[in-house]
Amino acid sequence: MYPADFRYTKDHEWIQVSGSTGTVGITDYAQHALGDVVFVQLPQTGAKLKAGAVLGTVESVKAVSEVFSPVSGEVTEVNSDLTDAPEKINQDPHRSAWLVKLKIENPKDVAALMDAKAYQEYVAEKEKEQTA
Amino acid sequence: MSTPATAETRKTALNSVHRRMGAKMMNFGGWDMPVEYTGILAEHEAVRRRVGLFDVSHMGEIEIRGPRALDLVQHVSSNNAAKLAIGQAQYSGLMTPRGTFVDDLLVHKISDTHYFLCVNAGNQDRDYAHIAEHNKFGAEVENAGARYSQIAIQGPRALELLQRFTKVALAPITYYWFAFGDVSGVDCLIARTGYTGEDGFEIYFSPEHSEKMWNALMDAGQPLGVAACGLGARNTLRLEAGMALYGHEIDDTTTPWEANLAWICKVDKGEFLGRDVLMRQKEMGVQRILAGFEMNSRLIARDGYAVLDGTREVGSVTSGGPAPFLKKNIGFAYVPPKLSAPGTPIAISVRGETAPAKIVPAPFYKRAK
User: Fold this and answer.
1) With an 8 Å Cβ cutoff, is B358 touching chain A?
2) CB-CB under 8 Å, B39 with A35
3) Do B40 and A35 touch (CB under 8 A)?
4) Chain B nearest CA to A106, separation (Å)
5) Residue range B188-202, pLDDT digits in tens
6) Residue B87 phi/psi, 5° resolution?
7) Contacts of B28 (CB under 8 A, 6+ apart)
8) Do B351 and A57 touch (CB under 8 A)?
9) Is the predicted ipTM greater than 0.90, yes or no?
10) Which of A31, A97, B14, B354 is 20 to 30 A away from residue B58, measured at CA?
11) Among A83, A82, A72, which residue's Cα sits nearest to residue A15?
12) Residues B69-85 pLDDT 10s
């Protein structure tokens, strides 16, 4: 379910690192919790983000949810397909519905994030709380 | 996101059915309720085009009986219940002495000496206390919520679905009328009412039959494209249909004039709680009025966002969100009366961004009759 080559945040973002570039999205858990996504607001290319800063917003029918940057870096690309098809975030959150690509400032930011196994456990714990 | 059911949250008789169906649950007015089953958009669409089932057993029921039952109903509510025939229902406001809303409600006239009120879940105990407190007529007031489950069957195919389970002829029950009858072997109050802007029925019955009733309707509804619908779709449907939600468009600080509900405020009917204040406000005019608006962009207005006239904050959004069927972003807001005419440009402050919008007539959506 959660790709082994991604790293994850407690706020349910993922990042896939390739060289100095990180591709960022929200997790399947996040899209499911949000419900039908109807609007996405993303930063401009060139925006410089600190780790933990607001990267954009994803809105479902019911709610607005902020997305936080998993690492510090500069936005090199945004997924403009999502403007007209925000529902892709529900359909394919880990692949085609990536949000932005970042030039990673410090690889140590990545090392601090959860790996797939840790995230899976983190999510399982959350789900247990909810059905208790 | 679903939240755990705690000891304090109340559950309808269908709670375990919702959980088995994998619904996302939330606390709504103290009740553990389904928000969505398959998704708000799909559920909304099902109601507009086919039929949807809602467990609305959290709604409260209050029954008023006795020779002076009508006097009590008239005293606490803003609409004119004296106009009701037996078997007829009306939308009304439960009023404070200040002319503001304790709640909004449906008043059903069962007989000259028996009125059946349907009130909001989160308000039912407060409503009951309020009515009891103002009962100077010796009427019998019963807080009857625990004695009823309520299922709403809504959508263009609602009649077709429900008719399979009852010998009561449903077509002659016109909008805002009701009848008593057997549905799937269970005694029901069958009302042609709803909170979606579609044709449909709301049935009230004894809770022990809830699972049987729900499952029968769901099963028979499959070929009709039925969807189980949660409170998420209930909210988008009512907003699109221009209906008020207590705690949003109306509360104990808003009057019927302000809420654009003059049609349920009959000051000529005689004395009722808040009437003097309301007559004065009618004469003086209101400082703010509820108006519908539509966003000019993809930005979505949400509850509580500021309404701007230029750069000045002049009001606030009471309900805002996407209108899934109209494919627009809409909302209700309180604005100064001079800005309330359809076509007037306004703006909504969306997280610091000034998003242009315009006033439009409500309801936003009207079904073809």
Assistant:
1) no
2) yes
3) yes
4) 30
5) 999 999 999 999 999
6) 90, 10
7) B58, B121, B122, B231
8) yes
9) yes
10) A31
11) A72
12) 999 999 999 999 999 99
